[in-house]
Amino acid sequence: MACLSACSSVAQKADPASDVPEEPSRVATFKDAASYAQALQRWRTPEDVNDWIGARFHYDVSRAMQLSETERSKSGRLPVHQAQEFFLAPSGICVDLGRFAVETLRAIDPGLDAKYLMIEFWPVTVDGNVLRMHWLASFTRDGQHYFLGDSKRPGHIAGPYGTTQEFIAEYSTYRNRSVVSFREPESYQRTQRTMASKERRDELRP
Q1: Residue at 180 is within a domain
Q2: pTM score, two decimals?
Q3: Lower Cβ count inside 10 Å, N or C end of the chain?
């Protein structure tokens, strides 16, 4: 589960190197719903989804520890939360939030071309856990790029940007972390397999 590794953090404080939210969300109003199906009927824009995330999301530090790059071999494989499950219990880490945002945006407005944004940071160690990968959701509107579903700042939409590269440069500065690479895959699962294959190759390398 290397692709999930950098969603981890063991620090309760908002360490810039971790994905723990920098501060509590201050979303005052949002469109709530009794079920995920009802939410999909009520929510019409990325702002609707983003406001709910800002009001409801809780970062799960214990889950993050289990999915850290350091601990994954001990913890075994844990599935990414499904969108419907996440709606009922909106607690998780970056990839859980990213999946919820992407799948929800695709459901309410396919024209937004929602995708995952996977960022590979230069690895750092926080309280003995290696942090590397981070996940968000991206979408386009009127030819511009936007980003949301960020566990570091839930309830925030970044944009507009002319290109994803512009966002990455700004985000690297904001996080004070060097970015090694980034991708916008259609699915988190495909990236999981790619990262696992790369990890096996690295283990075989003398």
Answers
A1: yes
A2: 0.83
A3: C
